Amino acid sequence: MLSGKNILIGITGGIAAYKICELIRMFKRQGANVRVVCTPNALNFVTKLTLRNLSQNEVGVEEFDIPDFKPEHISYADEAEIMIIAPATANTISKIASGICDNLLTSIACAFKKPVIIAPAMNCNMWENPVIQENLQKLAARGYKILEPENGFLACGYEGKGRLCSLEKIYDEAVAILTTKTKGKKYVITAGGTIEDIDPVRYISNYSSGKMGIALADEAYHCGNDVTLITTVDVTKPYKIIKVKSAIEMQEAVNGEFETADFIIMAAAVADYRVKNKSDQKIKKTNDDTLTLELVKNPDILKGLCERKKEEMLKRVQHDRIIVGFCAESENLLTNAKEKIQKKGCDYLIANDISRKDIGFSSDYNEVTIFDKNGGMIKLERASKSEIARGILKVINE
Length: 398
Ligand code: CTP
Prior knowledge:
By secondary structure, the protein is α/β, with parallel strands linked by helices. It has 13 helices and 20 strands. It folds into 2 domains: 6-179, Flavin prenyltransferase-like (Rossmann fold, 3-Layer(aba) Sandwich), CATH 3.40.50; 186-396, CoaB-like (Rossmann fold), CATH 3.40.50. The protein is 34% helix and 25% strand. The model has no long low-confidence stretch (mean pLDDT 93).
């Protein structure tokens, strides 16, 4: 399954280093070429000879131990399609988050522009340290995939969160990234609720957190795609971000990306109406007990995109694109979704039930039903938004 794939495994100085011997075997059994690089401290837990025999490659440790004239940190980074750092100690995580390159592993990580999986393992008190958490968040925001440690009995004698996640989890994550069919495409994804100004200090918006759209963008990026996220939420990401506020601004941004996009996913919660005459000055309180705001309809961005796609098909424009809508419903989810996919004319519609408290809006979890234009329907059971995102990308690429 992994024949011809190049995997770089970085091992740092933690007791879980011994488990990585089995991970190397798992990848080798599937035909992958595995290269291992260790921090000097990792060799206190596992030997270079073991790693060399299992990977059938030289093991890199020292930065200036160069057999031929080829800067190893660059050649290792060039060769591999994915880098897995497991176990990742608090020390290495913090160095990478700060751009420190004081050994071969951290130098490679700094030069590595493809997907990186980080599987931390450490004492539970170290894991809970806010500095470590901040550094992990910083890395996650920059596109690193963090596989959180598990709860359990730790080698240091403590009971708590810090044990390396299962090898299967690391393996599955890497395989999903390496074998995805979605590579090399341009994804334009919208996220967050639009903000419609009333006056300079007030606005109309909605409860959308943008998490589902961001999870889709992260997942598409991890799989090696060119991603543009058009968002009302502030985020720092390794891919292109276009920050917008209102539905009109969002429409302008999406339309600008239409031509080159292979997939357009409208995960944003676009306000259906905006204030007709937004005030340039702060609206003052009057003696009246009521205030009436007149609203006008916003453009339906998704419908407009689908109409443009149809026009291009009639003109026989070669470049086709898949357009995906979302449908947040608080009642009659399935009936409304079936009606909406017809009305909007999109290729897929992802329906989710916003009446449920355990999924949707600001939750990290979701459960969706994917409708396609031919009447097909696939349910993705409750899972984290990143797992749901992966499922959606898989379906829309089939
Ligand atoms: N959408 C859009 N432009 C709008 C409203 C919605 O592009 N002005 C998109 C959303 O991003 C989403 C899909 O249309 O992908 C469905 O959004 P939803 O709010 O469920 O549908 P509406 O058409 O607004 O219908 P209603 O609010 O009446 O359910």
